[in-house]
Amino acid sequence: MNKNLFRNIFAAIVMVFLFSTMAILPVSAQDIGLDYANNLDLQAANESDPKQMAVDIVKYLMTFLGIIAVVVILLGGFKWMTAAGNEDKVAEAKKLIIAGVIGLIIILCAFAIVTFVVGITNDALSGNI
């Protein structure tokens, strides 16, 4: 009982000292001015090019699919590590890893094709061909 009481009191004192310093620390905010956003030349949401929006959506979709493919590879590796010598589980894990790698290859090829087509389209529309 005494040991727990001493430990609780010590923990309370330490917390008071740690958290009290946060309340009295000075704030070092910087004055960036009222025209900061105007000086950055940010593009408004309604001024964006529909073609660029479509490209961005495709890129985000491919990024999401790439994350899913990596998760499939990691899941296959986890299943292989926890197979405990069971050949059926090892074969299933190998199939998952192979499927994930094939998915990544397809996603990278699709990304390259989209980048190429958008580049050619931009050049054709701007007259740089």
Question: What key attributes describe this structure?
Answer:
about 130 residues; mainly alpha; 4 helices; signal; T4SS_pilin; transmembrane; membrane
Write a concise synopsis of the structure shown:
This protein has 129 residues and is an all-alpha fold.
Query: What's the main sheet like?
Result: none
The chain-level structural class is mainly alpha
| DSSP strand content | under 5%
Please, how many helices? 4
- The helix fraction, in percent, is over 70%
Radius of gyration, CA atoms, in whole angstroms: 28 Å
- Low-pLDDT regions: none
Number of strands: 0
Shape: flat
Mind explaining what this structure looks like?
- The chain crosses the membrane at residues 57-75, 96-120.
- It is built from four helices and no strands.
- With 129 residues, the chain is mostly helical.
- Helices cover 77% and strands 0% of the residues.
- It has a domain at 48-124.
- The longest helix has 40 residues, at 87-126.
- The N and C termini lie far apart (85 Å).
